[in-house]
């Protein structure tokens, strides 16, 4: 799967052919056609042998070859334009790579990549020649991170300080400006347009420096922003302030990847009460749907799959009806949802005992039986046995009518 950096840079790559040259700081002049604008810092990060001495560099190749290589440099993807052949635009696959046009273009693209020292030329070769057995990943994220850590991308710095703080601001390196513009609504509004603050190399941001440093490192391919459950609230606060859909996706993914029997119920409570985690707000963000892992669905599925591990005490504590189990952390509304689904593969008698234990852990003795009754059939489907009996009877009734 492509990195989220490559997905964020796709609009930037798409604009290379028709962009205003003021958006870029370097031009590659092919043997044919107009010069192709691009970003000097990204090419330097990805192609270290490229000698950049002037704002416009002559490249001894055709426009199509340079464009194909730049698409890989920006987005870690390729397609043959088929210009002048009547073929139209098509993604490279094994069949097209074996064609005469495909092989010629592929060989010339690889030759240019080697000349410029493209770091992930092997991965490019595998894409060009349709090698589906081995698909080495591109290294866009690694190249961005390396240059970010060396402060060799754009000359943008943020001066950070918390609102109302009297101490001096701390300078935080900004990194690659086009990536920030695509990732964040806040940065797009601040750093682009006629009144952009990019006229200055230092831009003041009222935000804790440690959080902004962590955020910018994450955006450039560094460590995860979320490193433990305590970081979830911090991540969502940053996502909300800076307008960062990718951070919302990251939070959902982190929760799904870190569910276990000890924390699953607590994390589900957090997800259920946190509207900022909803993925609807990022559907139009440009991130591919493969990146969307819904934490709500992941929590539900985990509880269905690991219900007994969450709900039943170990052998030593089984006789103690008041012993605590991880399921007791789950809110009553989510417990009701589990029971209403009819998805639990637990015997009816054992599930009744679990519900009674849960009710005693959540309510006073006088109310426990009342609430437990509301979580029993016929108020809920309860488990698979009862659900299958009901749905089986319904199916038979429909067949009889038909």
TrEMBL record:
<dbReference type="Pfam" id="PF00651">
    <property type="entry name" value="BTB"/>
</dbReference>
<dbReference type="InterPro" id="IPR000210">
    <property type="entry name" value="BTB/POZ_dom"/>
</dbReference>
<protein>
    <recommendedName>
        <fullName>BTB domain-containing protein</fullName>
    </recommendedName>
</protein>
<feature type="domain" description="BTB">
    <location>
        <begin position="180"/>
        <end position="254"/>
    </location>
</feature>
<dbReference type="InterPro" id="IPR011333">
    <property type="entry name" value="SKP1/BTB/POZ_sf"/>
</dbReference>
